[in-house]
Amino acid sequence: MKEDSEVVNSYAKGFLLGALVGGAVGAITALLFAPKPGKDLRDEISYRSKDLLEKGQNMFSGHDTQNADLPNDGKSQADAVVRSAREKADDLLHNAEQMLRDAKNKAQQSSHSFSDGISKLKDAASAGMDAFKQEMGNIPPQTKS
User: Fold this and answer.
1) CB of 12 within 8 A of CB of 71?
2) What is residue 145's predicted lDDT score, i.e. its pLDDT?
3) How far is it, in rounded angstroms, from Cα 56 to Cα 102?
4) Pick from 61, 66, 55, 68: which is nearest to 12 by CA?
């Protein structure tokens, strides 16, 4: 379980680093294509670079309160997904076991019904044979005239 949290933390850190780098590249690109005079553009790039650098340092040193809960949120969500998947798998397994028990019961009932039907058929055939033999014994022999 500890390995899972390490993987989640690794992904969260990678995601945050990617978001910061992507944000920096996007901001610089937007500034370069914005119609501003050179001095204003350089000042804004300098300000934003310092701001991004400071945010990155705060994030990796643990002082960034805004993004401090992101790894924990990711872990919580991952745990919730795993828990939900386990519950659904358990439910499916329980339902499959119940269906198997029901099928076995129905098969046993069918087998008993079939056995009972065969037994009744044998009894009826035996009774019919006995009745036939009795009737044959009651017929007087015929003489030739």
Assistant:
1) yes
2) 57
3) 61
4) 68
Pairwise pLDDT comparison (68 vs 58), residue with the higher score: 58
- CA end-to-end distance (rounded Å), the chain: 106
CA–CA separation, 136 vs 145, rounded Å? 22
Mean per-residue pLDDT for 114-137? Answer: 85
pTM, 2 dp: 0.34
Q: With residue 106 as reference, give the H or E element that holds it.
A: helix 70-138
Q: Where are the domains of the chain?
A: 1-68, 72-133
How far is residue 35's CA from residue 55's CA, in Å, rounded to a whole number? 27
| Residues 8 and 74 sit within 8 Å (Cβ to Cβ) | yes
Give me the DSSP letters along 80-98: HHHHHHHHHHHHHHHHHHH
Mean of the pLDDT values across residues 103-130? 86
What are the distances in angstroms from CA 115 to CA 17, 37, 124, 129?
Answer: 73, 99, 14, 21
**Rounded-to-integer distance, Cα 109 and Cα 38, Å:** 90
Residue-wise pLDDT tens digits, 88-108? 888 888 888 888 888 888 888
Backbone angles phi, psi at 51, to 5 degrees: -65, -45
